[in-house]
Automatic annotation (TrEMBL):
Residues that span the membrane, as ranges: 12-32, 52-77, 98-116, 136-158, 179-202
Subcellular location, record wording: Membrane
Native organism: Jeotgalicoccus halotolerans
InterPro entries: Cytochrome_b-558 (IPR011138), SQR/QFR_C/D (IPR034804), Succ_DH_cyt_b558_Firmicute (IPR016002), SuccDH_FuR_B_TM-su (IPR000701)
GO molecular function: metal ion binding
Gene3D superfamilies (alphabetical): Fumarate reductase/succinate dehydrogenase, transmembrane subunit
Name of the protein: Succinate dehydrogenase subunit C
Keyword annotations from UniProtKB, A to Z: Heme, Iron, Membrane, Metal-binding, Transmembrane, Transmembrane helix
An annotated GO cellular component: membrane
Segment forming the signal sequence: none
Residues where heme binds: 29, 71, 114, 156
Pfam family, one: Sdh_cyt
Amino acid sequence: MSNQDSGFYIRRLHSLLGVIPLGVFLIQHLLVNFTATYSEEAFNFAAGIMGNLPFVILLEIFIIYLPILFHGIYGIYIAFTAKNNVGRYGTYRNWMFLLQRISGVVAFIFIAVHVYQTRIQVFLGEEVNFQMVEQIVANPFWLVFWIVGVVATVFHFANGLWTFMITWGITQSEKSQQVMSYITVLVFLAISTIGVMAIFAFV
C-alpha cells in the first residue's frame, strides 16, 4: 500500500471515529449532564447508571479513550500541517476549515482536563456526582473553561459532520453540501445549548 493510499484510509478512519463512536458519545454524555437541569437526584441517577454499566472500564477504553487519542493526535497533526486560506480567500468554508482546526485543539485540551477532573478522580476514590461537578464549576475559571470547552467540542463535531458527509461520498453535489451546512449549524446550536444549560444547572 502506498503512502497516498494509507493516508486516504487514515483520514477516513479519523473522520469515522469523529462521528462514531465519539460524536454519539458526546451527545449521550451531554444528555446525561442535562438531567441536572431537572434535579440533583436525576443527575446522580443518570450518572450512576452510566458508571455502573457492565465492563465499563473496557467500554471507556475502546469506545472513548483510544478513539479520542487517535482522532485527537492525528487531528492536531492535520491542524498544524494544513494550509489555511482564510487570509487569501476569506470564504465561509475556509473560515470553517480554520475554526475546525482551532476548535479541535481546544476540544482536545478540554477533554484531557475533563477526564482528569472526573474519570481519573474515580480511580482515586471519588464518585462522579452532582457535588463533584458543582465544586468544579464553582471556580469562575473552570466555569468559563468548561463553557468554552463544551462549545468548541460541539462546534468541532457539528462542523465535522459536513466533512464526514463528503469524505464518505454522501454529499457530492454543491446543493447537498449547502443543505448540510445549514443542518450542521442547527446541530451546533441545539447541542451546544443543551451542553451550556447543563453546565449552568450545577452553578
